[in-house]
């Protein structure tokens, strides 16, 4: 089966094509302006790179958010349009979970960077505004420890986690934690900026496809997360 996955939840926009769980092709675009305007071009490039027609695709997947309102809206419109036009199922994946998968792939090889010890927790973050981020918490096996939520970062954020074990902050929102939590002995920061990618969206979406976890394309809405109303303690 062929699965096309897309993500434009940030300024990093990407498309990947998988066949039976193996990635065949991926294409990425990064711009300081909205990368989502390139999404239809990237979809066409990816499918042509594999040498198939869109009609041959068995399912379409997208990073459902959280993230940029405009980017999520564009990705949803493109993918829903393809699903309707071609009568294909829609698979949606949490953007933060896909970011955690990206780090898990190379975590064992970077133990010297992170330091030895017990298993760490992964906290993917997407920058929101001011000292605000969208965040979730996963363990090294991919189990969700704390669900996706908005967080206003301060010196008390994630304190209950940092008391227990090392915590790896990652994503374009991690610098906000570095400025207030960087001196904590259990705080670790992934050395590279992690952007959501269609490759990891595809990793997770393939499992959803096999399990038959599809979205209602007509009713589906991305996971925007509403505006911050009160201060959230993490």
Low-confidence segments = 228-233
Overall average residue pLDDT? 89
Radius of gyration: 18 Å
User: How many beta-strand runs?
Assistant: 10
Count helical runs. Answer: 7
Helix/strand structural class: alpha/beta
Q: Mind describing the biggest β-sheet?
A: 5 strands, mixed
Q: Strand order, biggest sheet?
A: 3-2-1-4-5
> SSE string, helix = H, strand = E?
EEEHEHEHHEEEHEHEH
Label the overall shape.
Answer: elongated
Q: Termini separation (Å)?
A: 41 Å
Please state roughly what percent of the residues sit in beta strands, choosing from under 5%, 5-15%, 15-25%, 25-35%, 35-45% or over 45%: 25-35%
- The helix content is 25-40%
Molecular structure report:
It contains seven helices and ten strands. It has 234 residues and is an alpha/beta fold. Helix 3 (95-106) packs across helix 7 (198-211). The longest helix is centred in the N-terminal third of the chain and has 18 residues, at 69-86. The termini are far apart.
């Amino acid at each position: 089966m062929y699965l096309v996955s897309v993500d434009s939840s940030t300024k990093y926009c990407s498309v990947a094509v998988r066949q039976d769980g193996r990635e065949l092709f991926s294409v990425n675009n990064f711009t300081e302006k909205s990368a989502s305007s390139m999404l239809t071009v990237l979809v066409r490039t990816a499918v042509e790179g594999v040498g198939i027609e869109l009609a041959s695709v068995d399912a379409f997947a997208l990073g459902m958010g959280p993230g940029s309102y405009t980017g999520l809206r564009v990705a949803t419109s493109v993918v829903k349009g393809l699903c309707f036009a071609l009568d294909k199922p829609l698979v949606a994946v949490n953007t933060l979970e896909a970011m955690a998968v990206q780090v898990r792939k190379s975590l064992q090889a970077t133990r010297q960077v992170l330091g030895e010890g017990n298993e760490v927790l992964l906290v993917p973050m997407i920058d929101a505004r001011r000292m605000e981020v969208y965040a979730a918490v996963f363990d090294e096996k991919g189990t969700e420890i704390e669900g996706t939520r908005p967080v206003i970062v301060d010196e008390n954020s994630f304190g209950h986690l940092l008391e227990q074990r090392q915590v790896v902050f990652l994503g374009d929102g991690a610098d906000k934690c570095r400025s207030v939590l960087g001196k904590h002995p259990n705080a670790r920061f992934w050395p590279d900026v992690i952007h959501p990618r269609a490759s990891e969206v595809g990793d997770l979406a393939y499992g959803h496809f096999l399990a038959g976890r599809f979205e209602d394309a007509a009713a589906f809405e991305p996971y925007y997360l509403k505006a911050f109303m009160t201060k959230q303690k993490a």
